[in-house]
Amino acid sequence: DATAASSFAPSAATRVELIAHILSSPASRGGAGLDELQKVPRHGILHVFPLHDIRFNQRLSLMARHLNPFCGASVDRFLTEVRAQYGEKVALYYAFNCFYTWWLVPPSIFGVALTAVSWIDESRYAQFLPVFACMIMIWASAFIKAWRRNSNRLAMEWGTINRQQAKVVRKSFY
Questions:
Q1: Are 50 and 15 contacting, i.e. CB atoms less than 8 angstroms apart?
Q2: If pLDDT is split at 50, 70 and 90, which confidence band does 173 have?
Q3: How far apart are the C-alpha atoms of 132 and 110, rounded to whole Å?
Q4: Helices (H), the chain
Q5: 57: buried, middle or exposed (CB in 10 Å: 19+, 13-18, 0-12)?
Q6: Rounded CA gap, 18 and 121, in Å?
Q7: Each residue of 13-22: pLDDT tens digit?
Q8: CA dist., res. 12 & res. 58, Å (int)
Q9: Top-confidence range, 61-65, 137-141, 153-157
């Protein structure tokens, strides 16, 4: 269908993946065969990345300035934009930063309270240190479990839950 083919508009991240695949695929499979060229020093392709879209970057920068990690809607909108332009890996990086910022609030509040206690009474401060250490251990375990759940949720939403790095069989291996 000609209209379906013409309406397909891949994101910048998808275009980079497609171009990298075409460039590195062997010529016998319809690619450019540049994988062999990479074995020659100083003649290979080191990185492939999307060109800068100045208007998009300005809009994304404005969104990032007003990003509130405590408001799920603004984070989701921001992650959708980042994912469309830069791919899942970069979006997952920002998702982790927002999630980590949100999860740092409870230990930081307890840490500020503990610092205030240390200014008031040094002997009480020493009594609360084991409690603080236990709280941090529990917090860290809960954080890891919650992040694993959140990253799996994002992978499920983005359709990358079972996606693995493409394995390319090298002829020189055999």
A1: yes
A2: low
A3: 8
A4: 2-7, 12-24, 54-65, 72-86, 88-103, 105-120, 122-158
A5: exposed
A6: 63
A7: 777 777 777 7
A8: 16
A9: 137-141
